[in-house]
UniProtKB/TrEMBL annotation:
It comes from the Eukaryota. This is Phosphatidylinositol-3,4-bisphosphate 4-phosphatase. GO terms for cellular component: cytoplasm. Keywords: Hydrolase, Lipid metabolism. Residues 633-645 have a biased composition (Pro residues). It comes from Aphanomyces astaci. The keyword Lyase does not apply. One of its GO terms (molecular function) is phosphatidylinositol-3,4-bisphosphate 4-phosphatase activity. PANTHER family: AGAP000124-PA, PHOSPHATIDYLINOSITOL-3,4-BISPHOSPHATE 4-PHOSPHATASE. Signal peptide: none annotated. Residues 318-339, 631-653 are annotated as: Disordered.
C-alpha cells in the first residue's frame, strides 16, 4: 500500500470484539537487535509459494495502547489558564487521536530497503485503533533478504502537541519469522509495543488467508489483490474479510483481432463490388489515368496535337478591319507592347484570328461513306490574334483581341470525354474493334469573329486524314503494356484547303493512334455481388439499432443491378474511401497481432484517440469483490500431509523470533512446509467489468445514431423522388456514367491546371492489402486534384462527393449520399462494436467461471439467454453526447450475438449465424462438453450522467436528456421481456412474489425520471435487478477510471452490506438519488476509493494516485459519488494534465 494522505475515519475502540483478546498474560519481551543471536537451530528459508499466493496479507490492530486524547490549541490555552487561576478541571470535550501505522521492511542494520516501499494503513481516530486496510507484503526473496526486519510504527498524524506526526509506539519482527508464521498456519501474531505511555500495549497481526480468483477460461495478467477488514455491525463478531481484485484480460486484444478480421472480410466484399462499378464507369466514360490503362481496359488511344500553321490567307468575305482595332477597357498589354505598329502608332492589322478544331468520325465498317455517321467534336485550341502563322498555346498577341475577350484556353468535348495533355495534345479513347480502323480525323482552321467571340467564326480551311489509308502504316507497339498492340505515329505539315478546294495555308500536326488487342467488356456487378459471401451492407453489423427503422430500411433495399449508375466523381472518391477503410482495418489487425504477441493487453485513457488501437476497449479490467471467512484461530493450515506430532510443532515464541535458550524451548523448529491449497474459498464473489465508453474517439464525425437517422431520412427521400420521376424517365435515372447517355456535343474549357490532369487511379490487383495507386503516371498528380471552377462549368470537377446540405439534391446525388453514409456507418460501427463485444465476451467468461458448476444458472442461460447490464455514466452534453450515441448503438447491436460453448476448439471463433445474415455466433472453447445450445444475449444499458456537464445539460434542457430517457425506457422494455421469460423457468426464487415484483422499483424510477435532476437511483436499481437475474455487469464512463471508480465502489459497498430495495414501488414516485445509502456503506466505498484497486487503475493511466476531479467537479457530483478529498487533483493539474 502506498504512503498517501488518507481521510479520517471513526472506528470502534473495542479491539477485543474485532480480533479477540490476546493470550493472558502477555509479558513485554525485548526483541534482540541481532538476528544472529538465535540459540535454536535456524530453519532453512521457506519454499516459494504457488503462483497467485506469493503475497502475505495481514491486518493490524492495537490493544491496551490507550493513546492520549488530542486537545485543540484553544483547549490547551484554556487548560493552562484554568491551572493558573486555581487548578480548575480540564475541559473534557477532547477528541480521540488520529493515528496510523507505518510498516517498513529494513535490513539487519535498520536501513530501509530500496526495493520495498513503505506501507501504511488508513488514518483512524481511536485510542486503540483497529485498521481496515490490509498490509500486503510481496513474498519475493529477490526483493526481501531473509535477514530483513519488519518495523511497525504507530504515528499520531495531527499537528497538536509534541507528539504530532511522530512515532508513539514501535514493534519489530524478523522477516523470516513473519513468513514462517504465515507458512506454518498461524492466524494471529501478537507483538509487544514499545510505548512511553504504557508497557501493556500489544500489536495484533492477523493473517488473511485468501486465494486470488482462478481463471480457467479468462486469460489475465497484472493481477492486483487488496484486502479489507470492515467492522461488523455485531460487535461480538469478527470484521468482514473482503478482497478486491483486478486484472487485465487477454480478450482486450483477442476479441478485436477476431472481430476485425470478420469486418475486413465483409468490407472487402463491398470494396470489390464498388471497384467493379468504378471500373465499368471508367470504361463507359473512357475515363482512364493514361493510355496504358485505356489499352488494358480494351480501348484504342487517339492523340492529336495541332501545333502551328503558316501562310494563312484571309477569306475575301471577311470584314475589313479598321486601322485601329477596338481595344477592351481591360487591355492585357499596353499599346506600346505591340509587335507591329503603323507610322501613326496604330496596329498593322491582318484581320486573321485563327484557331483549330479537331473532329473525329468513325464509320461502322471500312470503306463506308464517311458522311454516313455524324462528326464528333474532339476539341478546340486557343485563338491566336492578328496572325497568319500562329503557334497555338502561346497566346502571343492576346492583347490584340478586337473584342476585348480573348480565348486563351483549349476546349474539350464532353461527348468523347477528351482530355488535354502537355498543353497541346488532344487525347481520347474509343472501344476496341479488334484493331479495325475506319473513318477520319479532320482539322478545321477558323478565324474568330471580330465583334464577338461567341458569334459563328469564319472558316479558313481544313484537312481530312483518312484512318483507313493509315492502317497499312501501323507497326507493332513496343511500348504497349498489352501484347500484339500496334501503333502509328506521325508529325507533318498538311495543306489546308477551303471548301472550294483552294490551298489557303498549311498546318503542322502530330498524330498517334494505338490499337489494343484486349477486348472491351464490362464486369457484371450482379455476379460480383453474389460471388462475395461477405458484404458489409448485408451483414448483421449493418443492422440498425431500432428494429422498426431497420425493417423499413431493409424492405426498400434491392440487389445491385448492372443498370445502377453513379457519377464517376462519386465512384472514384467512394472506392478510394472504401480502400482506405480496408487498409485502416489492416493496420488495426496488425497492431492487435503485435500486442497479442507481446501481451500488451492494456490500453490506457491517454491512448483512446490513437487510430490504430481505437477498436480496443479503453481501460478494460475485470474486477471482483469477494467475501471470506476468517481462518480458525491458532489452527494450522490444512494440508495434504498429516500434521506433525506435538513435539515437532513450533511454539509461538519461536515463530515470533524471541531469542531464548534452546533447552528452555525444549523443541526443535519444524521446517517442513505444508503444501499450499485453496482451503479458504470465498463465500460470495461479485464480478464487474469496467471500461471506457465503446465509441470511436479517433473518428470526429457524426455518431452512430445520427448516421442511422441520416440513412433512414435519405432513403425516404430517394423513395419519394424515385416514385415522382418514374414516369418522366421511364424507370431509368440518366446520370453520368450510365449505360445510355445522349448529349448534345459541348465544348468546355481546359485551364493550365487541367493539362495532363489524371482523374483516376490505377487498380493494381485484387489484393486490397496493396496500396491503391491513385496518382497519375504521366503527370504524377493525385486524383483529388481540383480543377478551377469556371462560370460555364468544368468537364473535370472536383473528384469528391458533393456536399448534401447546400441545395436540393438530384436523385443520383441522394443515392450517392446514401451509399457513402452507409459505409461511414459500417466502419464507425465496426470500431465501436469491437469494443462492446470485447466487454461482452469478458463479462460472459467471468460469469461462466463463477457458475460453471451451477447447473441451474447454465440452464437458465441456455433457455432464455444471458443478460448483460451496462451502466453508463457519461453525460448527454457536448462531446459525450456523441459517445452516448455510439455506445447505445454498439451495445444494442449485441442482440445479434450469441454464444456457443465448444470443447473441440482451442481459441475463440466468430462466425455468421446463418445465410440470412441475422447474427454472429461466438464459439467459446471449454475443457468439456457442457451440452448447452446457443446462448442468446440480451443487452440493456441504463444511463445517467453525473458530472458537471450533466448538470449543465439539466439546466439548459439539452436534447441529450431526452436521449437518456429514451435509452432507459427501451432498455427497461428489453429487461421486462427477459424477466417474463425468467418467470417461466424453473430457476425462480423460492419467494415467487419477490421474483414477480423484482422490476417494480426499477419501473417506478424509470417512469418518474426527472429531466432536471440526476436520477442516479435508476443505476442502483438496475444493477440490483441484473445481478438478481444472474446477469453480467459492465460499468463505463468516458475513460473507465474516474466516474467508473465512484460507481463500482458504491455498488460494492451496497453488495457488502446487502442493501436491496424493499420499498413499496408506489412510494418511489418521488424518489431521491440516494437509495438507503447508510454511513457504513459510504465509509466502505470511500475506503475502497482511496486504498483500493480503483486508485491503482488511476495511477496506471495518469501516473498519479489521483482521480481526474478537481474541487469544483467533485462538488458537482452527487454526494454518494464524491471521492475523498485526498484523492482529487488541484484545479491547475486537472486542466494541464488531462488525459483526454
Amino acid at each position: 500500500m502506498e504512503n498517501r494522505d488518507n481521510p479520517k475515519h471513526a472506528m470502534n475502540d473495542d479491539i477485543f470484539s474485532l480480533f479477540g483478546a490476546p493470550p493472558a498474560p502477555v509479558r513485554p519481551v525485548e526483541i534482540a537487535r541481532h538476528v544472529n543471536a538465535l540459540t535454536i537451530t535456524p530453519p532453512p528459508p521457506p519454499q516459494p509459494l504457488e503462483a497467485g499466493n506469493s503475497s502475505i496479507t495481514c491486518f493490524l490492530s492495537c490493544t491496551d495502547l490507550h493513546l492520549p486524547s488530542v486537545h485543540t490549541t484553544a483547549q490547551t490555552m484554556l487548560r493552562g489558564a484554568m491551572s493558573v487561576l486555581g487548578g480548575a478541571s480540564t475541559p473534557k470535550n477532547s477528541k480521540p487521536p488520529e493515528c496510523m501505522i507505518q510498516v517498513d521492511v529494513k535490513n539487519a542494520h535498520r536501513a530501509p530497503l530500496v526495493a520495498v516501499e513503505s506501507l501504511t494503513t488508513e488514518k483512524l481516530r481511536s485510542r486503540n485503533p483497529a485498521f481496515t486496510v490490509g498490509i500486503h507484503f510481496a513474498n519475493d526473496p529477490s526483493f526481501i533478504p531473509p535477514d530483513s526486519v519488519v518495523c511497525f510504527q504507530v504515528i499520531m498524524t495531527e499537528d497538536s502537541g509534541s507528539q504530532g506526526k511522530k512515532p508513539v509506539a514501535t514493534a519489530e519482527l524478523a522477516w523470516l519469522h513473519l513468513t514462517q508464521n504465515y507458512e506454518h498456519g498461524a492466524s494471529v501474531v501478537y507483538l509487544p509495543l514499545h510505548c512511553p505511555y504504557t508497557d501493556a500495549g500489544v500489536l495484533t497481526i492477523r493473517f488473511a488467508r485468501t486465494a486470488p480468483m482462478r481463471h480457467p477460461l479468462l486469460a489475465t495478467q497484472n493481477q492486483v489483490v487488496l484486502g479489507y477488514a470492515f467492522p461488523n455491525a455485531n460487535p461480538s463478531l469478527l470484521p468482514t474479510l473482503v478482497t478486491e481484485e483486478m486484472a487485465e484480460v487477454g480478450t482486450s486484444v483477442q476479441l478485436p483481432l477476431v472481430f476485425l478480421r470478420q469486418c475486413r472480410r465483409e468490407l472487402e466484399g463491398a470494396y470489390h463490388l464498388w471497384r467493379v462499378r468504378y471500373n465499368n464507369a471508367k470504361k463507359r466514360l473512357k475515363h482512364f489515368a493514361d493510355a496504358d490503362e485505356a489499352m488494358q481496359s480494351g480501348c484504342d488511344v487517339f492523340r492529336v496535337s495541332v501545333l502551328q500553321a503558316r501562310h494563312l490567307q484571309p477569306m475575301k468575305s471577311m470584314r475589313k478591319v479598321p486601322s485601329k482595332p477596338l481595344l477592351s477597357p481591360k487591355s492585357f498589354k499596353k499599346p506600346g507592347d505591340g509587335k507591329a505598329m503603323d507610322g501613326g502608332g496604330g496596329f498593322e492589322s491582318v484581320g486573321v484570328h485563327p484557331f483549330a478544331v479537331v473532329l473525329f468520325n468513325e464509320t461502322p465498317a471500312p470503306h463506308a461513306n464517311i458522311n454516313s455517321t455524324p462528326w464528333q467534336v474532339v476539341g478546340k485550341t486557343n485563338t491566336e490574334y492578328e496572325c497568319t502563322a500562329p503557334t497555338w498555346a502561346t497566346n502571343a498577341q492576346m492583347s490584340q483581341c478586337p473584342h476585348g475577350a480573348p480565348s486563351t484556353d483549349f476546349f474539350v468535348s464532353t461527348h468523347l470525354h477528351t482530355k488535354v495533355e502537355k498543353r497541346t495534345q488532344f487525347v481520347w479513347y474509343r472501344p476496341s474493334r479488334r484493331q479495325e480502323l475506319s473513318g477520319a480525323i479532320q482539322i478545321d482552321v477558323c478565324s474568330e469573329n471580330e465583334t464577338d467571340g461567341h458569334q459563328p467564326p469564319v472558316a479558313l480551311g481544313s484537312v481530312t486524314l483518312s484512318l483507313e489509308e493509315l492502317r497499312p502504316l501501323f507497326v507493332p507497339d513496343a511500348a504497349a503494356v498489352v501484347a500484339h498492340a500496334v501503333a502509328f505515329r506521325s508529325a507533318n505539315w498538311f495543306p489546308l484547303k477551303s471548301k472550294h478546294g483552294d490551298v489557303v495555308g498549311e498546318v503542322q500536326c502530330e498524330m498517334e493512334v494505338r490499337l489494343t488487342s484486349a477486348a472491351f467488356t464490362f464486369e457484371s456487378e450482379r455476379e460480383t455481388h453474389f460471388q462475395k459471401t461477405a458484404k458489409a451492407d448485408e451483414t448483421p453489423l449493418f443492422r440498425l439499432a431500432t428494429q422498426a427503422m431497420d425493417r423499413a430500411l431493409r424492405d426498400t433495399m434491392h440487389t445491385p443491378s448492372d443498370d445502377d449508375t453513379y457519377s464517376i466523381q462519386f465512384l472514384h472518391a467512394h472506392v478510394k474511401e472504401l480502400g482506405g477503410y480496408v487498409k485502416e482495418l489492416d493496420a488495426m489487425i496488425r497492431k492487435a497481432e503485435a500486442r497479442a504477441t507481446s501481451k500488451t493487453w492494456f490500453k490506457g485513457s491517454t491512448d483512446k484517440k490513437k487510430r490504430d488501437i481505437q477498436a480496443m476497449a479503453t481501460n478494460l479490467h475485470v474486477s471482483y469483490l469477494r467475501k471470506f471467512n476468517w481462518p480458525p484461530s491458532n489452527s494450522p493450515r490444512p494440508s495434504l500431509q498429516p500434521p506433525p506430532p506435538p513435539h515437532k510443532r513450533s511454539s509461538q515464541a519461536d515463530l515470533l523470533g524471541l531469542h531464548g535458550d534452546a533447552k528452555l524451548a525444549g523443541v526443535d523448529v519444524d521446517v517442513t512446509l505444508p503444501q499450499t491449497n485453496d482451503n479458504n474459498p470465498a463465500v460470495a464473489t461479485y464480478a464487474t467489468v469496467t471500461c471506457g465508453a465503446p465509441t470511436a474517439h479517433a473518428i470526429p464525425d457524426e455518431g452512430l445514431m445520427e448516421l442511422e437517422d441520416k440513412l433512414v431520412k435519405t432513403h425516404k427521400e430517394i423513395s419519394l423522388m424515385a416514385n415522382g420521376m418514374k414516369n418522366l424517365y421511364h424507370g431509368r435515372v440518366m446520370v453520368e456514367g450510365g449505360n445510355v447517355l445522349v448529349e448534345r456535343p459541348l465544348l468546355v474549357p481546359v485551364t493550365d491546371d487541367d493539362s495532363g490532369l489524371t482523374t483516376h487511379g490505377t487498380d493494381e490487383d485484387d489484393d486490397v492489402n496493396s496500396a491503391i495507386a491513385l496518382e497519375s503516371k504521366s503527370g504524377g498528380r493525385k486524383v483529388t486534384h481540383t480543377a478551377k471552377k469556371d462560370k460555364k462549368g468544368m468537364f473535370f470537377p472536383k473528384l469528391s462527393r458533393q456536399s448534401s446540405d447546400t441545395h436540393l439534391l438530384t436523385l443520383g446525388q441522394l443515392r450517392e449520399r446514401f451509399e457513402s453514409t452507409k459505409y461511414q456507418y459500417y466502419f464507425r460501427k465496426s470500431v465501436c462494436v469491437s469494443q462492446s463485444v470485447t466487454a461482452l465476451v469478458t463479462t460472459f467468461l467471468a460469469m461462466l467461471e463463477l457458475h460453471e458448476d451451477d447447473p441451474s444458472t447454465l440452464s437458465q442461460w441456455s433457455q432464455i439467454g444471458f443478460v448483460i447490464g451496462w451502466e453508463s455514466l457519461i453525460s448527454s452534453q457536448g462531446k459525450e453526447w456523441r459517445m452516448l450515441s455510439d455506445a447505445w448503438v454498439a451495445i444494442k447491436c449485441l442482440e445479434r450475438f450469441s454464444f456457443q460453448l465448444d470443447h473441440t476448439i482451442s481459441e475463440i471463433v466468430l462466425e455468421e449465424r446463418s445465410v440470412d445474415h441475422e447474427g454472429y455466433i461466438i464459439r467459446i472453447p471449454t475443457k468439456q462438453d457442457m451440452h448447452l445450445g446457443l446462448i442468446a444475449v440480451t443487452p440493456v444499458v441504463f444511463t445517467q450522467g453525473i458530472n458537471e456537464m450533466q448538470s449543465l445539460a439539466n439546466m439548459v434542457g439539452s436534447s441529450g436528456v431526452e436521449l437518456q430517457s429514451t435509452i432507459n425506457n427501451a432498455s427497461f422494455k428489453s429487461l421486462q421481456m427477459y424477466h417474463a421469460k425468467y418467470l417461466k423457468t424453473s430457476n425462480v426464487e423460492s419467494d415467487s412474489t419477490a421474483a414477480h415484483l423484482l422490476l417494480d422499483p426499477l419501473m417506478a424510477v424509470v417512469q418518474s425520471e426527472n429531466a432536471a435532476a440526476k436520477n442516479t437511483r435508476i443505476l442502483l436499481e438496475a444493477s440490483d435487478v441484473v445481478r438478481r437475474l444472474r446477469g453480467g455487469r459492465v460499468t463505463y464512463c468516458k475513460s473507465g477510471k474516474d466516474r467508473t471508480a465512484m460507481s463500482v465502489t458504491l455498488e460494492q459497498a451496497r453488495l457488502l452490506f446487502k442493501r436491496v430495495s424493499g420499498v413499496n414501488p408506489l412510494h418511489l414516485l418521488g424518489a431521491t438519488e440516494q437509495l438507503n445509502i447508510g454511513a457504513e456503506e459510504l465509509h466502505a466505498a470511500n475506503i475502497m476509493r482511496e486504498f483500493g484497486i480503483r486508485i491503482e487503475i488511476a495511477n496506471k493511466n495518469v501516473g498519479r494516485y489521483k482521480y481526474s476531479f478537481n474541487a469544483i467537479q467533485r462538488k458537482m457530483l452527487p454526494d454518494i459519488y464524491r471521492p475523498p478529498m485526498s484523492t482529487i487533483q488541484d484545479i491547475v493539474t486537472s486542466v494541464t494534465a488531462r488525459d483526454s
